[in-house]
Amino acid sequence: MIVKVCGMREAENIRQVEQTGADWMGFIDYEGSPRYVAGVPEYLPESVQKVGVFVNASLSQIRERVAAWQLDYIQLHGKESPEFCREMQQTGIRVIKAFALRTPDDLLTTESYAACCDYFLFDTPCNGYGGSGKSFDWEILTHYQGETPFLLSGGLKPESLDALLKFSHSRWAGIDLNSGFEQAPGLKDAAALSDFIYSFKQNKYNL
Questions:
Q1: 8 A C-beta contact, residue 99 and residue 111
Q2: How far apart are alpha carbons 134 and 124 in whole angstroms?
Q3: Where does the N-(5'phosphoribosyl) anthranilate isomerase (PRAI) domain start and stop, copy by copy (predicted)?
């Protein structure tokens, strides 16, 4: 079960979160986000997978960031087409495509992306792009019958643990944590993350 911590920015906080048991760490390259990373952080994690988060960025911009940030994955939150995702994959970049879910019908959009994405990320609808800090109705995912594994996102916080331990889906691959574990935008509470990740993984793996 993958645990991704997104919205990282400060070097010392990156070092702290790297020790929490997280598997992936996300860096946001979207100027509309309060967690936007303008340049290469002074420290990049060495023991976790690095994910660059983009919104309608160009191929050249993404390739530049992949090289500069030594990215393992890109996460696309805009109106990127299946063809765009396929072109990114063909360059050797692994792709996560985000979808905001309001109703089961929104899952139909994922079908054309199945062959060109490594993971999906299911999130809460909001105005603009990025996180809302709120959860969506996970019951919608009972209608997801695709083969592409997905990460669960949207408003996850320490109090979400019980619900996560009860949630089940054959294609569920992990969770995405962000604002629910912050002391300020882009600054994570490493102690809270460490406690949560330990409890989540211990209980999930022991079920």
A1: no
A2: 7
A3: 3-197
Per the DSSP assignment, residues forming a β-bridge with 150 are 120, 172
Burial, 130: exposed, middle or buried (Cβ in 10 Å; 0-12, 13-18, 19+)? buried
- Give residues with Cβ within 8 angstroms of 168, minimum separation 6: none
Q: Which of 109, 179, 173 is nearest to 143 (CA)?
A: 109
Give the pTM.
0.94
Which residues sit opposite 123 in a β-bridge? 100
For the chain, give every domain's residue range: 2-206
10-residue stretch averages of pLDDT, the chain, 207 residues long: 97 98 97 93 96 96 96 97 97 95 96 98 74 78 97 95 95 96 96 97 76
Among 110, 136, 109, residue whose Cα is nearest residue 123:
136
The answer to whether 71 and 96 are in contact (CB under 8 A) is no
